[in-house]
Fold:
Amino acid sequence: MRVRAGTEGSFAVRFAWITGVRLLVLTVVLVGATTMYLGGLGPSAYSSRIAFFTVAAAYALTGLYAAMLRIGKGKLEAIAYGQMFTDQIAWTLIVYVSGGAASGATSLYGLTCLTGAILLGLRGALFAMVFGACEYTLLCAAIVYGRLPLPPDQPPDAYAKSWSEAAFPLLLNLLALSVVTLLASYLAERLRTTGGRLEVATARAEQAERLAALGRLAAGLAHEIRNPLGSIVASIELLRTGSTLAPEDKQLCEIIERETTRLNDLVGDMLDLSRPRAPVKAPMDLAITARDVVMLASRSSRGGDVLVRYDGPEALAIDADAAQMRQVAWNLVRNAIQASSAGSEVRVCVRVVDDGAALLEISDRGVGIPPEARERLFDAFFTTRSQGMGIGLAVVKRILDDHGFDIAVESAEGKGTTFRVRVPR
Structure:
């Protein structure tokens, strides 16, 4: 599991907490070893020197790891593996001076496995388990075969000097280490998954709160804005029917009409986003809806310089909310027209795919969507254009999510964008 740039900060925080806990555990180990196993031995005794040297080295390495957290950005995973490796060596030395195979300090191997699971998941826990198990097994074998002398200041009876004595505690501790590793990995993964879901839920709650505030604002402004807009549009229509207008005046009237239409669409999008309505599914014809939207778009303000073409069957029945699916098609087609240059083409296609699902495709030949913007494409108030507020696609996503339909985006810079809405059979 690689530590990605987006999660490096949280990894460093976990590593810092683990380092602090590690210092506490080392202190407890030193006190416990001194009290239980090294009691009565002077500081110059063999076991005491090994225990004190081990803990002192571990303290020094902890300080080194803490310093590397500041200067080792991008190498945190390697630092974590290094810490687990040295920790297992330290626990092996503590086990050696505290009874060998039957030492109670063997539980410290599991602590490192828990650290690996918290930092790196299953991969880190397995790494710690394998090294801890190997070092523990080699220690027991070295004592049994006489390759490693027993601490001279420890009672020989406390050590297993044959396989008949060492086999049972060895296997029992290895089994316990495996169980701890699996449980720690499982719990760490569940915690990581739960944390991710909590972040998503928090983001959704914040978005819902923003939308609620927007709904209150939109409801108050919609009436006040739409009434003047209606008066403006009616007045412009009366002016255009007159015969006294010069060609330049007619062009100005067209500009006013186009901008009032755009403002009216914006108010409608705000209301659709802030006041969601549960879909009422019923049999409807997706093909007819798509053709109606194409005809409406052809008569819109940019219908004259962008060709909107329909490609599909005469009829295609689906179960959906007809009004909301019309809103989806209109928003996607309008978005495609806005992304197109003069003389370009927008293609609206309806077809049935192999599994029987209905597919609505809206394609343009615009500049495309930058890769860094695709993850936020359906976020409310996010837009890549200088004009617009980023509401239309958010409305599309909300409607399709409420229906249980999927939407996919395929885009290449300089080659255009295709939105695909999939309606399951």
